[in-house]
Amino acid sequence: MNWLWWRRIFALTQKELLQFSRDLILVVATIYFFTGEVYIAGKGVSLELVKAPIGYMDHDQSLASREWLNKLRPPYFDVKGQITEQSTALKLLDSSQLLGVIDIPPNFQRDLLNGRPTEIGFQLDGSNVVLGNLANSYTGLANAYFNQEWMLKQMKVTPAQALEVPRVDVRQMILFNPEGNNAWFMSISEMMTVMTMLSLFLTAAIVVKEKERGTIEQLSIAPLTPLQILLPKILAVELILLCGIALSIFVVLLPVFKVPFQGSFFLFFLVSAVYVYAVSGLGLFIATISKNLAQVMIISILLLMPIILLSGAFTPPEAMPEWEQALIWLSPLYYYINMGYGIILKGSGLEIIWQNLLALFALGTVLFLFGIRQFKKQFGA
Amino acid sequence: MDFAVQANQVCKRYRKKTAIEDISVDVRTGEIYGLIGPDGAGKSSLMQCISGVLTYDSGEIHVFGQCIDSEKTAEKIKHRIGFMPQGLGLNLYPDLSIEENIDFFANLRGVSAELLTQRKEMLLSVAKLTSFKTRAMKNLSGGMKQKLGLICTLIHQPELIILDEPTTGVDPISRRDFWEMLNRLVMEEGMTALVSTAYMDEASRFHRLSVMHQGKVLEQGSADEIVSKSPGWVVEIETTQPDQVLATLRTQFEIVEQLGQMVRLVAFGQDKNTIESILKNLLNSEELQWHFLPIGLEEFFIQRLKNHSATAEKQLQKQPDLISKSHAKNNTADTSALIKADKLVRRFGNFTAADQVSFEVRPGEIFGLLGANGAGKSTVIKMLTGILPPSEGAGFVANQNMAHSGMAIKESIGYMSQAFSLYLDLTVLENIKLFGRIYGLTGQKLKERIDWVIKIGHLQSVQNETAGSLPMGKRQRLALGCALIHQPKVLFLDEPTSGVDPIGRAEFWRILVRLASDLGVAILITTHYMLEAEHCHRLALMQAGKIVAYDTPYALKQSLKQRKGQVLSFKVTHPYRALSCLEKAGYQDISLFGNRLQLFSKEVKDVSNNVINILKNNQIEVKDTMVLQPSLEDVFVDKIETALAKHELS
Amino acid sequence: MNIRKILTLSKKEWLEIWRDRVYFTMAFIFPFVMMMVLGFGMSFDVEKMPFVIVDYDQSDLSREYSHKFISSRYFDYKGHLKKASDADELIAKADIRFLLVIPPEFSKNLKQGKPAQVQTQIDGQFTYRASMVKGYVSAITAHFNSELTQDWFAKKRGISKQELQAMLAPVTLQTHYLYNNELKSIWSTGTGMIMLVMLVAPAMLAALGVVREKESGSIFNIYASTVTPAEFITGKILPYILISYINISILSLAAVLLFEAPFKGELSLLMVSNLLYVASAAAIGLVISTFVKSQAAAALIAMIGTMIPAMMYSGLMMPVASMAAEAKIEAHAFPAMYQLEILWGTYLKGQGWQELWPNLFVITGFLLLYWGVAVLRFHKRVKA
Questions:
Q1: How far is CA C242 from CA A59, B209, B265, C210, in A?
Q2: How far apart are CA B576 and CA B579, in angstroms?
Q3: Residue B344 · residue B389 · CB < 8 Å
Q4: Domains in chain C, please, with CATH?
Q5: Class of residue C88 by CB neighbours under 10 A (exposed 0-12, middle 13-18, buried 19+)
């Protein structure tokens, strides 16, 4: 690997970049994925309970029942009003106009005052599990606060006395994302998913394009080793995607979503570079088995899905079934997500992520060598 | 006179490019009308406008008297026309069988069931495809695909058929077959046909034609009429010392070129006797043989364009200084083969693409590999360049086995693959630079070589345009330049000139000839243009993976001449009727070229008189008679027919 | 419209798909794999959150409090640490998702009737899971507090615990999950995936089908023939509807068999709406195909153009009712939302024709709209 060797690599890398810059559709699509997609993901999906429409059937119409209902507070809930008939309630729930209906039984206040156990019903739409979980958790809390207050009131505790009632206060600190801003999480994972998709797709597309045009033959006849033919393509994809991710970070994540970038930019770009290298090996493999761009597209998507599924991007590993947890190390995205969130949100340094980085590099090398082997087989070069 | 098509001053522009400009064409009912010209001449656009599938910007088109100016009016004539777009078999469905393809087209056109059965049977038998009915289209040979395309276009009995380059990419024998089938059907069914082609030598197939170039019509009329506008002769001189003869003739004639063991001279504006006497003066007529050929459309085209554009003339006049002083003539006394195919075999599954192929190419030699599509030429080249490992045998370049060659040998190979294989989205300069750098050139050396490539390719004016925007001729010169940037000793060219206009081809070959003679480069080339094959020192003809003929062009033609004699060509008034009369009279293997009939004969005089008599008795007038030498195309057709016959026997 | 021409076109298209084994297999495997991956992959169940405790107090009371967390099924106890700072690395590496810190004077403060401050540090990476943890911690603490209060009253007022409990029965909140009693995310996401997958796949297949002909040039057969745009579009779309209908039926069955989702509603309704839905999805593909020339562009645009609205604006992630106004408009302007309502309605809510017929009506409307646009945009005499 002398000077001439690198000159050739450089010449070919330059060629790939030039070609990329001339393919308008590809450039526009790449820019869109790194900005538009990331923006939509950050803006679009909310996993927060915001103004959930709640109705109630207050059969008691007492002070206590009203007090209970008062505990359902914005911003979580939007209490819509009284419903008289169960059938109406069901209809509203069925049509998704309400997320849940509180059912306060008659004689609620009387029973409470007499120390009889009371039960409030909550019919909750479970079809959206996220919202179901959150709504249940928040109403449960509201009920607990009501109980606590009611107890003090019932025991006629004066405000001065109340201070002496022992209680545990929890100061809950949400690390890295104190306001629970979901846009951070979504935009970062989308950015990483886009990285995955493009390293897979661009690498495969660049190689298949040469195959379709027949230019790959011209290269295999030139005094170039397979590594010399393929490495420049990967270098070019690296450069393009690192620019892309810079675009994502500096145009979308930081200014629009105000993501606090805690760690080192350099480290993040280094990790990203290793990641592109790892995934591009798979891209080479796709290129060897597909005949045209359309096939590349379909196979990329098929491969992309297990990679995303196993990555922990949407479901953290601890929540996965065991068979999935056992396969997690196969997904390069798993390492990338871990390191990526680590660096961006948690400010992790190399000392924390080095194991992941090493594992990713090892996995990448295996994939890359596999890709080159397939390519060699096909072109006999 | 009834007109099937009347196009009047039609213009069509795509975004930046003008495709056709002020074109007027009239096609009479019942004739075969040709649009002839190189790639990018505007033939396809014009045909699509006439078929009502493409809009145009100005002018008027009438088809059967119906003005085609909107989607609605275009619909009115669509049941009367059949249109076959460009690209061999591209409008057919690869996964469907022959019969399914035909049925699809018929049902699409609402052909009734009885008519379909009847026509399908008739057309399949004319095309000799009946026994392949159930074969999937993708498994057909090029010639079969082309005939199937024609059947599908004809299935609904259209009155006008429009065929866009039906013969491009097909070998000469399939082309002959195709023309015969078309001729027969057009005459039997009283159809009109509008056909385009890039092959100038097909001009004589048409009743009338338009010669097109860069969106304009250069000439219109019958082939004879057109050519007679610049009368002249082509003289082929056989010689053992082409260099000397060439030099001598240059003093008197403008257009002289060397074709292997032959010198070819084109003289415009002089009659036969004048030329004859000049030749007698210049050359030793006892040692040399020459024969006269009428001017073909190809020569005419070059001449016409020369007058047409100054730049074209400059290109032809200026002989570029091919050999920069840094590398003077390669005087290697070593004449051992630079390229050697040693019993190369390549199998793909059950299919043998190349079967025991052996040949040698020496330094300074241009070796032509001819054959139909799928005959195995590209496979052989791929094995010789090391892209494809052979199943058996070995390919050698400079005595190195290419199956496991090192990097060093790759530096001495130049390669131009079948499809244009440079980067269309890079500029001319970027392409050249890239390949220079791949081959390790740097600094001053790289600059020198880039300048050299640009100079020999006449690419100065387009340096910064993308390769994709260049016309075919320039693209091919660019590709050649890139293949030559590292001064290879061996050059592989896989159909480098298909779709290139005659001027571009002439220019291209001039470079090749100089490379071989002055630099001692060994060149292996494949081509479909028989005229180009004449340039080669030796030829190998491939059929179904095997070499069926292997000799110099001269020897090949001589042996055919000895076996079958010379070619008699009659221009007649009623060619189709004349054909059947002669067939009835027992003459076989007569081919029909527009209004000419051609047949082989050893006793030229007797047969000629005989034919004229037979035709006279049938009230057919013979307008002129010519005796021609067998061409390489005749050799090609003969060899392949022999090989096929042998195959059928075994 | 000539039926014979339409059938001819359909038959040819079908034969081509059928004989191209790679494509054919892809057409069936693609949607299935996509559904499996997304269905099993997007889990929103929050359980077994790994956590550690730092207990600086080490008293009975602190242990009692800790135990409430350790025994919760939502949390996965990973052990005690000596100092809070020891947890930093574990959290950074995502080995644990939260940390509970009990301060030194925890029991002393409580016994003196003072509030005791405990602290949690929750990994905020997965926002939704962080808020769930927060909720669980609060709930456990509230429960612990009410016990503390009761103890306090018992001591202060000298009443026995039993008496106290007789006086103060707390309100219990009984949540009844409608439609998805066990709140299994796979029931809803799994059935929702049918909507997503069967919008993307038919659109992509149909778009590729037409553009492939444009690329190869066989589209000229249509241009040059007497087939009308309506016949062409109809003939072209039928095989894709057939394939997609088989696919959506397989997926609908897979939701019950593999995701174990219930099916409570009217099957006939689902079968009809499935057909109309895949037809309108395929029609979207045909509309796309009239805009593009290359297969790559067709696949890309079909992908983006269907995936995003189906994912973001269908109600799959976020109920349409809580969307912003523009998003609401976008949701209603696409068949995805209506099909999702039908899917969830029939699978989970036990609905049928009576409730959902307007949705069928709307989906049919979309189908006709897309079909019409494709027909109008398909020109047999092109500009370039």
A1: 53, 49, 66, 16
A2: 5
A3: no
A4: 3-43+184-377 (no CATH), 49-167 (3.40.1710.10)
A5: middle
* Angle (deg, nearest 10), helices B142-154 and B172-189: 10
C166, pLDDT greater than 70: no
In A, minimum Cα distance to C187 occurs at: A127
How far is the CA of B151 from the CAs of A346, B40, B433, B566, B646, in angstroms? 71, 27, 48, 34, 28
Instruction: Encode pLDDT of A98-136 as tens digits.
Output: 888 998 888 888 888 887 788 888 888 877 777 888 888
Chain A residue at shortest CA distance from C139:
A141
Shared domain for A41 and A66, answered yes or no, is no
Q: What is the pLDDT of residue B420?
A: 67
Cα separation, C371 vs C279, in Å, equals 9
Q: Which residue of A218, A225, A378, A379 to mutate against B (max B Cβ within 10 Å)? A: A218
Q: Do C5 and B107 touch (CB under 8 A)?
A: yes
Provide the domain limits for residue A119: 52-162
The tens digit of pLDDT for each residue in B408-430 reads: 778 888 888 766 678 888 999 99
**C183 contacts: CB under 8 Å, gap ≥ 6:** A126, A129, A132, A133, A136, C45, C177
Q: Which two tokens stand for residue B103?
A: 């049925």
The domains of chain B, with CATH numbers, are 3-226 (3.40.50.300), 227-323 (3.30.70), 326-553 (3.40.50.300), 556-649 (3.30.70.100)
What does the block give as tokens for B1? 């006179």
Question: Do A71 and A24 belong together in one domain?
Answer: no
If phi > 0 it is left, if psi is from -120 to 50 it is alpha, else beta; for residue C228 that is beta
ipTM of this predicted structure: 0.76
Amino acid B308: pLDDT: 58
**CB < 8 Å from A in window 458-497 of B:** 466
Query: Is the bond preceding A75 in cis, omega lying within 30 degrees of 0?
Result: yes
- Residue B464's φ and ψ, nearest 5 degrees, are -105, 15
| Residue contact B386–A380, C-beta within 8 A | yes
Q: How far apart are CA B12 and CA B21, in angstroms?
A: 7
Which of B221-230, B331-340, B634-643 shows the lowest mean pLDDT across its residues? B331-340
Task: Say yes or no for a CB contact (<8 Å) between A177 and C130.
Answer: yes
Residues B633, B172 contacting (CB under 8 angstroms): yes
Asked if the structure places residue A176 within a domain, the reply is no
Closest CA to B323 of B87, B513, B560, B158: B513
Tell me whether residues A380 and B387 touch, CB distance under 8 A. Answer: yes
Chain A residues near residue B494 by CB distance under 8 angstroms: none
Kindly report the three-state secondary structure assignment for every residue of A213-258: HCHHHHHHHCCCCHHHHHHHHHHHHHHHHHHHHHHHHHHHHCCCCC
CB pair distance less than 8 Å for B419 and A214 = yes
